[in-house]
Amino acid sequence: MAESATQNSSKETEFLTGLARGVGGALLFALPMFMTMEMWFLGFYMSREKLLLLGVLNIPLLVVLAKRVGFEKTSSWFEAIRDAVTAYGLAIIVSAAILALFGVINDQVTTSTTVAKIAIQAVPASIGALLGRSQLGMHSEDDDEEDDDAETETSYFIELFMMLVGALFLALNVAPTEEMILIAYKITPYQTLITVLLSLTLMHGFVYALHFKGGHGRSEDIAWWHTFIRFTIPGYVIALGISLYCLWSFERLTGTSLSEITAAVVILCFPAAIGAASARLVL
Questions:
Q1: CB contact burial 120-139 (16+ within 10 A = b; e otherwise)
Q2: CB within 8 A of 155, min separation 6: which ones?
Q3: N or C: which end of the chain has fewer CB within 10 A?
């Protein structure tokens, strides 16, 4: 009985510690967006249908991410769903508290606007809350060995999924800003092409050529273009898709020409591609 009570107490302590790390992760990763004026204004004019879609799509993303890095080591999808729901709940609470602290939602005339502002901020904050365990937690040697084993067993589709999360996470930081449209207006076609080439080069070199921790070291008997075709190009396509979706969701494509849309997507894809490439390093 005493041993069982001790184990239960240990699990509760571990879960509460995970919650604290989740709050820290939400603040660490979402604080720049909490203090960005364009994110506040999205609550006024962002389509409620697009906001609902963003929130709905965030749920399965959190569940799969929680299966990999939850508040605790998860052994089932039920536990992953529990962690995802917990992370989303923490994100909503943290978002509401910080926005209220900064006076952003204190004077709203409608409940719809208040809810929209909190819901928008809760998406990146929920991802940060889940990442709190992997980034803020203490790792023992056993944990590191388990992480290494999990890393070697990571499937190709999970790799692509982690790239998607990394791209989304960085893209959300800058997609709502006016600078995306301004740069798209000022940039020339040649500069757009150079941006694409630079994004691909950095994306490939960041993980596969520079051998960062968590990256894919290329074997000597495998040509460089193998990883480029298998990971870098699909990762860049994912980053492009995420960039287009973010700009569409945040009403940045309304009333713009096809050339400006293309330029805006390529510009936003620059940080999104780096986020996708660094996903294995930070997630």
A1: bbbbbbbbbbbbbbbbbeee
A2: none
A3: N
